[in-house]
Amino acid sequence: MSSTYDRLVGLLAKSFGIEPDEVAPEDTFESLELDSLALVELTLVAQEEFGISLTDDDLHAKSSLTEAAGVLDAKQVTV
Amino acid sequence: MSAGAAVLCGLGTWLPPNAVTNDDLARELDTSDEWIRSRTGIGTRYVADPSTATSDLAVEAGRRALKSAGTESVDAVVLATTTPDRLCPATAPLVAAQLGLGTVAAFDVGAVCTGFLYALAAGAGLIAAGTSDSVLVIGADMYSGILDPADRSTRAIFGDGAGAVVLRSGDAGEPGALGRPVLGSDGTGSDLISVRSGGSREPLRAHTADEADPYFRMAGKAVFRNAVERMAEVSLTAAQRAGWEIGDIDRLIAHQANLRILHATADRMRLPRHRCPVHLDRVGNTAAASIPLALSHAVTTGELLPGHRTVLTAFGGGLTWGACTLRWPALTPA
């Protein structure tokens, strides 16, 4: 798995107490029981962790962790 | 230091007697105690009866603040509210009259949930300008009058209440002296928290009544994010102006909007959560009243002690935000 994925899993552990060995790449935020406010909380901490700018719509309840890591990766690409 | 600093020397609060629990709301709306607590941290809020107006709450809190300060007179009354008794005139002159303060300067400040901090800055400004030697600053709101009875989100969040402080002219070095307030606004977000109808943009007229929306509306997710980012940033700026590092902040008294906003704000500032006292579980979001109510509660529980380096911060509709520092003075809330 990409380091972005691992860092995302790390954020879920730190901010929401979700154990890394309890999540799989195909899990969605919804299946991990993150509500809409939790996605905003995750957006805020992910911005800091990755030094990127995220809108409220970048992370979706139905996104898998792999897809979310892809969004975070794309935001880190310098063009 | 120079005289002309505003020194906080009295604190009073008032809640209407009728407590509404989450279970009470669940009997009326599609919600539950678990749903409300997990999303907001709120357990109870107080709702004034229909014969009560915002001025009634403000007078009760103001009277107690004067008593706490050991005085019967001030030179000015500044009332922060978004729920005035009437659209016109301002409510503050009536409050001043009912408090027996005579013909002192009195005006309202509208900055929604940041109202108390804007009013505090206005009061400090009156003192710094030499206009007043003492100012009664009140935050009072009765959101029960503007909430949509069918809206389970806002009904769960907001409660009625009032809180007030007395400012007097003093020395910048003494306990209770306010630091330089930091205020901000972003009108591009004015739709995020609003009552659409009833103002000049969309007056309430008989023939438009069907399309009118006279109720308070809030875009929860966007507000949540803005609140966390703005309160964390403005609190740090205010602390810097006072020459404080993060570790110097003993207490952050933040607008009591939502427990998760309080936690996220503290986390973002790298401030231990226990330095950010919580009161909203007992009273909900009381808008302009929340900071003085939270101050009084924190003093009563012993969480806020004389000498504590304290940052007050709020975020609200407008959008607006602000922060102010002080070393907490020795006083007894009333």
Automatic annotation (TrEMBL), chain A:
InterPro entries: ACP-like_sf, PP-bd_ACP. It comes from the Bacteria. Residues 1-76 form the Carrier domain. Transmembrane segments: none annotated. This is Acyl carrier protein.
UniProtKB/TrEMBL annotation, chain B:
Gene3D superfamilies: 3.40.47.10. It is an enzyme of class 2 (transferase). Residues 107-187 form the Beta-ketoacyl-[acyl-carrier-protein] synthase III N-terminal domain. The active site is at residues 113, 255, 285. GO terms for cellular component: cytoplasm. Its main location: cytoplasm. Residues 256-260 are annotated as: ACP-binding. GO terms for molecular function: 3-oxoacyl-[acyl-carrier-protein] synthase activity; beta-ketoacyl-acyl-carrier-protein synthase III activity. GO terms for biological process: fatty acid biosynthetic process; secondary metabolite biosynthetic process. It catalyses: malonyl-[ACP] + acetyl-CoA + H(+) = 3-oxobutanoyl-[ACP] + CO2 + CoA. Residues 240-328 form the Beta-ketoacyl-[acyl-carrier-protein] synthase III C-terminal domain. InterPro entries: ACP_syn_III_C, ACP_syn_III_N, FabH, Thiolase-like. Its EC number is 2.3.1.180. Keywords: Acyltransferase, Cytoplasm, Fatty acid biosynthesis, Fatty acid metabolism, Lipid biosynthesis, Lipid metabolism, Multifunctional enzyme, Transferase. The last Arg residue of the ACP-binding site is essential for the weak association between ACP/AcpP and FabH. Catalyzes the condensation reaction of fatty acid synthesis by the addition to an acyl acceptor of two carbons from malonyl-ACP. Catalyzes the first condensation reaction which initiates fatty acid synthesis and may therefore play a role in governing the total rate of fatty acid production. Possesses both acetoacetyl-ACP synthase and acetyl transacylase activities. Its substrate specificity determines the biosynthesis of branched-chain and/or straight-chain of fatty acids. NCBIfam families: fabH, PRK09352.1. PANTHER family: 3-OXOACYL-[ACYL-CARRIER-PROTEIN] SYNTHASE 3 (PTHR34069), BETA-KETOACYL-[ACYL-CARRIER-PROTEIN] SYNTHASE III (PTHR34069:SF2). This is Beta-ketoacyl-[acyl-carrier-protein] synthase III.
